[in-house]
Amino acid sequence: MPRYLVTADPVASFQPRFDTTLRLMAELLARGVEVDYCDLFTTDMSLETDAWLTALPVQKVLWSDPTRPPYVGLGEVRPAAALDYDVLVHRKDPPVDARYRGWAERFAALDGRLLQLNEPAEVLRHSEHLLPTRFPAYAIPTAHCREFAELRETVRMQPVEAVVKPIGECSGIGIAFFRPDAPEPALWDWWQQYGEAVVQPYQDAVTTRGDLRILTIGRRILGSVTRLPRPGSRLANLHQGASFHAFDPTPRQLEAVAAVTADLVPRGLYLLGLDFIGDLLSEVNFTSPSAMVQIGEVMHKRPEVELVDELEALRRGFVARA
């Protein structure tokens, strides 16, 4: 029987109503798979990489049930080596800060010796906000601003309004809207708080069609859901009060999904959340893509079953290649 290790934030921070990790662990356990959990914040970062990878503080997952508190049962903490497992599932949420990068760099040192979702070396190589630039035929034009002068000039160049995002954040944190004539002090205040930025032209479709999420594992689409901003807002993130609804992907969106997965899956970015505004790709989420629960509700199915089917297929394929 395969062994899985889930690395994540502290379980106290999980949000059971919409948590993907709890449902993933529950489905694995239902199949008789052995699952352990590692709270990354409890790892000893003073250790050298090799020692760190052989002394991970793990706990056996006894049960996982997002419908009743305390939602997950854990055994005693014990040390384990990453290579004791067949699959590492990384579910640490952004921000992608120095601490996040430190964990990912250590897991990246495993260098293909076991299946990791998603492959840490590739996670470190890319930005969720910038990855659409790899697919310009399908994406919203996206600028990367490393200096304040670049941010100021990029905002000035927008035809109507700029959407400015912190490069390492998620869930709508720090997103701001600036018209081309925005006062420089307002831009500077944003820069002082968040720094390195991603800028895109504002898309009106966000308030009519919403922010469309298509969740994939390998080349398989697990489902889709659209998130509409609450009245008076233009932020379509569920953490910012957006609602979610069913939608059927358009042919153009499906074409983009095929192009993105064909490029990224062979690199080890297996689990992806592709976000569209209208037919244009706005982000490619790969750190810990969510929306599986919302997809299940609007599509009346259990996508975690399909997710684990594909994980097991990937695991078997990885073993066969080795």
Question: Helices, strands, pairings?
Answer:
Layout: E1 3-8, H1 20-30, E2 34-39, H2 49-53, E3 56-64, E4 72-74, E5 78-80, E6 87-90, H3 98-108, E7 115-117, H4 120-125, E8 143-145, H5 148-157, E9 162-166, E10 176-178, H6 184-194, E11 197-201, H7 205-208, E12 211-217, E13 220-228, E14 243-245, H8 251-264, E15 271-277, E16 280-285, H9 292-299, H10 303-321
Parallel strand pairs: 1-2, 1-6, 6-7
Antiparallel strand pairs: 2-3, 3-4, 3-5, 8-11, 9-10, 9-11, 12-13, 12-15, 13-14, 15-16
The biggest sheet amounts to:
7 strands, mixed
Radius of gyration: 20 Å
* Level-2 CATH architecture of the largest domain: 3-Layer(aba) Sandwich
CATH fold node name of the largest domain? Rossmann fold
Low-confidence stretches: none
- How far apart are the first and last residues' alpha carbons, in Å? 18 Å
- Structural class determined from secondary elements: alpha+beta
Q: Strand-residue fraction?
A: 25-35%
What would CATH call the class of the largest domain? Answer: Alpha Beta
What is the element string, with H for helices and E for strands?
EHEHEEEEHEHEHEEHEHEEEHEEHH
Domain module tally: 3
Fraction in helix? 25-40%
Mean pLDDT: 94
Shape: globular
Number of strands: 16
What does this structure look like?
The protein has helices spanning 20-30, 49-53, 98-108, 120-125, 148-157, 184-194, 205-208, 251-264, 292-299, 303-321; strands at residues 3-8, 34-39, 56-64, 72-74, 78-80, 87-90, 115-117, 143-145, 162-166, 176-178, 197-201, 211-217, 220-228, 243-245, 271-277, 280-285. It has 322 residues and is of the alpha+beta class. The chain has 3 domains: 3-124, Rossmann fold (3-Layer(aba) Sandwich), CATH 3.40.50; 141-202, Dna Ligase, domain 1 (2-Layer Sandwich), CATH 3.30.1490.20; 206-302, ATP-grasp fold, B domain (D-amino Acid Aminotransferase, Chain A, domain 1), CATH 3.30.470. The strands form 3 sheets. Strands 1, 2, 3, 4, 5, 6 and 7 form a 7-stranded mixed β-sheet that branches. It has a 5-stranded antiparallel β-sheet with strand order 14-13-12-15-16. The protein has a 4-stranded antiparallel β-sheet with strand order 8-11-9-10, covered by helices on one side. Helix 1 packs across helix 10. The mean pLDDT is 94.
